[in-house]
Amino acid sequence: MDLREAIGNQTDVALSLSKQILLTESNNSNLVFSPLSIEVLLSLIASGSKGSTLEQLLSFLKSKSSDHLSSFSSQLLAVVLTDGSASGGPRLKFANGVWVDNSLSLKPSFKQVVGSNYKAATNQVDFQTKAVEVTNEVNTWAENETNGLIKEVLPSGSVDRTTRLILTNALYFKGAWNEKFDASTTKDDDFYLLNGGSVRVPFMTSKKKQFVCDFDGFKVLALPYKQGEDKRKFSMYFYLPDAKDGLQALVEKMASESGFLDRHLPPKPVKVDDLRIPRFKISFGFEASNALKGLGLVSPFSNEADLTEMVDSSAGQGLCVSSIFHKSFIEVNEEGTEAAAASAGVIALRGIDFPPKIDFVADHPFLFLIREDMTGVMAFPTKIDFVADHSFLFTIIKNRAATTLLILPKCSSLRRLKYIKLDILTKMRFSLLEMKPKPKTKHIIQEQLRRLGLIEGRCTAARRRGLRSLGSFGFSSGVEWAIATETRIAPKHNTA
Q1: Rounded distance between C-alpha atoms, residue 456 and residue 430, angstroms
Q2: Which of 33, 241, 331, 464 is the most buried (most CB within 10 A)?
Q3: Element (H, E) at 361
Q4: Spatial distance between the Cα atoms of 43 and 57, rounded to a whole number of angstroms
Q5: What's the domain of life for this entry (predicted)?
Q6: What DSSP designation does 333 have?
Q7: What is the pTM for the complete model shown?
Q8: How far from chain centre, in Å, is Cα 309?
Q9: Closest CA relative to residue 172, chosen from 342, 336, 334, 368
Q10: Dihedrals φ, ψ of 235, to 5°?
């Protein structure tokens, strides 16, 4: 298998999936996810498929066979996704897991691929009487594998007595910039929204030369991470459209041109007159099956699914993928990047010339991704529509007279507000009516609360998580990302 060709195909699939998800799932909010995590999970499903289901998966993933997919995943784990922190490089962790009902056993061939190629541990569990306990077990696994960044990748009620298998993976990355930003130079400025408004956010700046290139209609900035003793070189790439409302067109362009990323790389550092990058933190979760169906991957989720290569039982004839849950987190600040992602599939019964100077001011919606430059493997495309931090929340506080809901204990600019109360957060139920926000602000507040887990009218289970999120929102000293993706496999159901 040609690794370079396989990575090129993986990147094309990732950009196509990114376009579908970025344009359909974000609902005008910030979004982060890992197509790599979802692709590995689909490859694992392909290893247990045959017939038209396998053919559709191979076509979608642009691969010749399930053996090619397994071999590629094995090389990814060995070459790209190994931890480099011991030698001064990024800290990396990628793990797969399988949970199978006690009534079933994996086929020897599938179990061998799962263990040897995907390095996944197999767990026998009781879905039929202990679905809640299994859900908690899988969520705890994802949280541990992502250094605590991904919590509850499987939503409550997503696993029940019809579940037969859960396939999971989790990815964690933490890297420090090769050239860190000076936090003392970070200044608040306007970030322009798609609706024509703006918010004040902290922008990181630097006077040092940067890897920047100006292309037709957009600019690209590469920020390298510290490299360890191996040959891997990770970088974060920012894609900034010239037009303030040009992100959708840029995403379309990236997904429609094969090899786009390789043709749009800044080749050398140049002097930058004005460099401004917002500091941000994003968490996002969604169910991915609809997006995959929209791209033509239908068979694994239908009554025609053929997953008979997974389990050593006639019950395999009645299995289909019922859902794929994915959750990601990323934080970018002056130190570097920390990110994580987790996915769970649930299977149930049914060289360019540069001008001497250039600006790169990311003050309107943009897209960025993390890429390993030696191989070209891509992770974490992220769409930024707006950035919320302490100055935005401070504006909310100043514009309302009711009890303050949002505070940031780590924010020095808010410490002097001695009169701030936490009455609303300690109630069993709260309402935005108690906040009395301006009508234009209310929608933004609702979106922020939703992403922090503080859903209007439901404060009991989310209260501790919400307080923790608010306490560190935009003010962590590190930068990291995390991902979890999980698939549920259950019996097929009649749709008539």
Answers
A1: 6
A2: 33
A3: strand 357-361
A4: 8
A5: Eukaryota
A6: -
A7: 0.75
A8: 30
A9: 342
A10: -140, 155
